């Protein structure tokens, strides 16, 4: 017997194109490195000797005294390129330029990030005990650029402890509490941020969190953290709009990208020509209660992510996810290449029903794995359109409470109950699309 309430519709004409608004509404072009420098700094003896409060004060002072439109440039010298610092707060219009060979390292001392409750570096009932390493609070313009690195030192043993940040996260998972680890970069109520060519490594928690941000560009960014580093999401836009992530490479210990909508709607996001490796996938959710819409994912590869294209929520945090278009996507070595699930936590309770509608996949190619399409119920089905979607013959479908439609490119293997004439011609060739992570 077929899963309950499956409605299949074959479209005789081409699949409708994505609405024009289903992407970042800004005209985004490649950023450039700053031309106006207000300070050029090399590591001080304080950094080399571990007197991080002094180095933090020096870096923060340079940022504070830099006028809008200027940049603070960190460079390596004959003694090295490592700057050891505590939390830094960015200023409107100021860019932090980390040059090739320079590494801005987050000091692994929980006291540096503690918000006053003495929870940072612990497992507790709440998980908000740490300041982020780099903060953008209410800023306009500026960002972080350069061919250097920011190292969160998530794998370093914390000062005064016998655990690393990542071990704290794993212990929280075992004990059922909340980890109190600092995020690497957090932007709150900010506008027009730029992240260009920078490498982010070893975050203790999320690498980049955007909360109520209007306009942010990630271009040529690399994020690199071990696969077993729990809760180290790559880039998480939340309650934000007009975000572009392009020409970037992400491997992380959790979601490569997670588009969230807990406190406010997230919409108009473009994810273009990116490469994802280990991690939990290119995700929407799990907080979708305020609504996610107008998302374009185009010309990306997902090489070894656990889930591939993923939408996840449940009745404790569900909302409307609509106008999401995936096109020209290549997947391989994924346990769940497609994972659209309205019952992410089967034990969750609440009245916030997840609704996924107007989801389209065009020229999506993958291998074997489990393909999940799970709507909430017959009154709230998941609606998906396919055109030129091909997976290996060993791929299996799990389909429940859905309305499926297909254009002339079809879908293979055919979901249960949908009758299609096989599409003519070979599937798109992904052979030249795969790219190794740039070491």
UniProtKB/TrEMBL annotation:
Biological process, per Gene Ontology:
carbohydrate metabolic process
Work out whether the entry's keyword set contains Hydrolase. Answer: yes
The record's keywords, sorted A to Z, are: Glycosidase, Hydrolase, Signal
Query: What molecular function terms (GO) are annotated for this protein?
Result: polygalacturonase activity
One of the Pfam families matching this protein, by short name: Glyco_hydro_28
What InterPro entries does this protein map onto? GH28_Enzymes, Glyco_hydro_28, Pectin_lyas_fold, Pectin_lyase_fold/virulence
**Span of the secretion signal?**
1-22
The text of the family note is:
Belongs to the glycosyl hydrolase 28 family.
The name under which this protein is listed is Polygalacturonase
What species does this protein belong to? Nitrospirillum amazonense
